[in-house]
Design goal:
The complex is a heterodimer of chains A (546) and B (97). Chain A has 546 residues and is an alpha+beta fold. Chain A is built from 14 helices and 10 strands. Chain B has 97 residues and is mostly helical. Chain B has one domain. Helix content of chain B is 77%, strand content 0%. The longest helix of chain B has 26 residues. The chains are: A alpha+beta (546), B mainly alpha (97). Chains A and B meet through helix 1, helix 5, helix 8 and helix 10 of A and helix 1, helix 2, helix 3 and helix 4 of B.
Chain lengths: 546, 97
């Protein structure tokens, strides 16, 4: 396909600047997003079994609710029933006093209740491990802290990055079009410096383009939906109601008129046959707005939540109040929207699709990493024959250091935070603040290290750090198996093994990359990327070439 | 030859085109999704449609934003998108009266 030169040049420039400005934010978002595919396994890996309370039979839930409602009336505002007996479920009933906003509260306790052998209420207040939530937060904010207004600053920054990312996608496709057929499926290894990176960047970009378009558009919406709704209300809907609510019953029911859980399960079963109930959230039981929101999982459907779909019922009458997020019953418009939710979350098709999304997310992170390297390669001043190595631009130096420090620092930060959570629990206590601090500490140290040592050397060091940290994940589990005390444990389910296996796999990958990078550092030409000759003492920056 | 001349006329005008893409791109996308809300299947009060309408803003905006750089000059980009936004919102205002 032929596109005129000036247009190509404009989109080439657009692609470059869009990529450079948003690339590092998107790297963290994609890499952490890949990890959120295994949010539940991570949660199961870090939750100590001694904190778990006894799970109970379905017909015991009513007795439990009755006792909690009497002993802790504040739980009537909101409480949750858990039905799956997995390591990360601490008790069959839990509630959280106060406002459940979008801000992650790391140091306030959750309340847990169960029944003991004599059907008497047992209760504890605990701060659960928020590590899996923190990784999710890292995905949504790129680790940019500060809560403002209704959401984290990082969410809005990533929203802007997602807009820039869409421009980068379109411009990337446009500049590739003239040579698309010829160069797409050629992976020229070792032809010229940077050619391999360009080919790999293009192949992955084009083959996963639909995924990237969906992710970019949904990320824009996740960040700015409140603003979009406000704009629509002001300009389009005005007096028209935007959300039609089911007629709320005016009657306020006494708490002892709650339907038995078995009845609610039966009603849900009629509405959503062959789907599993994982949770029930009860809200505002003392008011006319009393609702139970049932979380329903079904690998056969594309569900609109990250893990489940939802069905809203009145817990006193059993009437369906909300079915727009129930798989298969969303209606025309709700159905289209829930497909897009599902395509972002990978919440369809079960474990297989989660692995695919894990791969797509890592491949996305590679696109941003390789994009930065291509920028560096293009601006690299070549060494002339017999001349001394040229002094590279400061901008190249900064970007090379940032790319290495931010990308590898974020990876190492998460891995070290993960293992330290378990060891801290054994030797001291559980602290979500500590997990958070360790992540930022490693992240900032890695960036400082990259600037101090230069991209060439620090890349080897940091890759080895990532490799070692990932290797400690299975080591921790093995040690825990051998020691096996209540405070140092290893869960022996397939989901927890997935985390150990992934740690082992990634550690091999990082150590291999460290070896390659080191080899290049000592052998490549001095004007090249990771040449150690170009260490900062010589004021020459290394830009990557392969 | 003619194609070359035509192509040469295109100017980058980064700031103006980007501003046109952000501001008028959004206003135009908002107006278009508003028209679909009123005139599309089901009309304004179809259940859950407002959520779909909200979602449609992002792709419309992004498509407009990403083709704005094809408009020959920054001033033309501002003018064309501005006029298009005005027309769409005028229609919307007439429907909504």
């Amino acid at each position: 396909m032929k596109i005129s030169g000036p247009i190509l040049r404009i989109y080439q420039t657009l692609h470059t600047w869009a990529g450079i400005s948003a690339g590092l934010f998107l790297f963290i978002a994609f890499y952490a997003g890949s990890l959120t595919m295994f949010k539940e396994p991570i949660d199961r890996w870090v939750t100590p079994p001694i904190e778990r309370m006894k799970m109970i039979e379905i017909d015991q839930y009513d007795a439990l609710i009755d006792q909690v409602m009497v002993t802790f009336p504040q739980a009537r505002q909101e409480f949750t029933l858990h039905f799956s007996d997995t390591e990360n479920v601490i008790a069959p009933l839990s509630w959280y006093p106060g406002d459940v906003g979008k801000e992650l509260k790391l140091s306030s306790g959750h309340h847990y209740a169960s029944l003991d052998q004599n059907n008497q209420l047992s209760y504890q207040e605990k701060i659960p491990s928020a590590l899996a939530e923190l990784i999710d937060l890292l995905h949504r904010t790129a680790g940019i802290p500060y809560f403002m207004g209704d959401d984290y600053l990082g969410v809005y920054i990533l929203g802007v990055a997602a807009i820039v990312y869409f421009l980068a996608l379109v411009s990337g496709v446009i500049i590739l079009l003239p040579t698309l057929v010829r160069s797409l499926f050629s992976l020229r290894i070792g032809k010229t410096a940077g050619r391999f990176w360009l080919d790999a960047h293009n192949i992955i970009g084009v083959t996963s383009l639909p995924f990237h378009i969906v992710i970019s558009l949904t990320a824009i919406i996740f960040a700015f939906h409140d603003q979009f709704y406000d704009a629509l209300e002001t300009v389009v809907y005005k007096e028209q109601p935007m959300f039609i609510r089911a007629d709320a019953p005016i009657e306020v029911y006494p708490i002892d008129k709650l339907l038995p859980i078995a009845t609610l399960i039966k009603i849900v079963g009629e509405e959503a046959p062959n789907m599993a109930i994982s949770k029930m959230d009860f809200f505002s039981l003392d008011s006319a707005n009393a609702t139970v929101r049932v979380a329903i999982s079904s690998p056969q459907h594309m569900v609109s939540g990250a893990y489940t779909g939802y069905l809203g019922l009145n817990p006193y009458t059993g009437m369906v109040t909300m079915s727009s997020m129930l798989p298969g019953k969303e209606g025309l418009w709700g159905g289209i929207v829930s497909k897009f939710f599902s395509l972002h979350f990978g919440s369809f098709g079960g474990a297989f699709v989660r692995w695919i999304y894990f791969g797509l997310g890592l491949a996305g992170a590679f696109i941003f990493y390789s994009g930065n390297l291509l920028w560096l390669e293009k601006r690299r001043k070549k060494q002339k024959f017999n001349n001394a190595a040229p002094v590279q631009k400061v901008s190249c130096k900064i970007l090379a250091n940032l790319t290495v420090g931010v990308c590898l620092g974020s990876i190492a930060g998460v891995a070290i935070s993960l293992i330290s959570t378990k060891w801290l629990y054994h030797f001291a206590y559980q602290s979500n603040q500590a997990s958070l601090f360790i992540y930022y500490f490693v992240f900032v140290c890695a960036i400082s290290w990259a600037f101090w040592r230069g991209a060439a050397r620090s890349a080897v060091d940091l890759l080895m750090l990532c490799g070692a940290a990932c290797f400690l994940i299975p080591v921790t589990s093995v040690a825990a198996h051998l020691v096996n005390t209540p405070t140092l444990w290893a869960n022996t389910n397939i989901e927890s093994f997935v985390i150990d296996g992934m740690g082992l796999l990634l550690s091999c990958l990082f150590l291999y990359l460290a070896k390659l990078t080191h080899k290049r550092a000592v052998s490549s030409t001095t004007d090249s990327v990771w040449s150690e000759e170009n260490a900062p003492e010589k004021v020459v920056i290394a830009t990557q070439s392969c | 030859m003619i194609r070359n001349l035509r192509a040469r006329k295109i100017q980058p005008d980064w700031w103006r085109k980007t501003a046109a893409g952000i501001v008028f791109g959004f206003i135009l996308a908002l107006g278009l999704s508003g028209l679909f809300a009123w005139l599309g299947p089901g009309g304004i009060s179809a259940p859950i449609k407002s959520q779909f309408i909200m979602w449609s803003i992002a792709p419309l905006w992004m498509i407009i934003f990403s083709v704005v750089y094809l408009i020959p000059t920054g001033n033309k980009a501002l003018l064309w998108l501005g006029v298009a936004s005005a027309i769409v919102h005028l229609i919307l205002l007439m429907i909504n009266l």
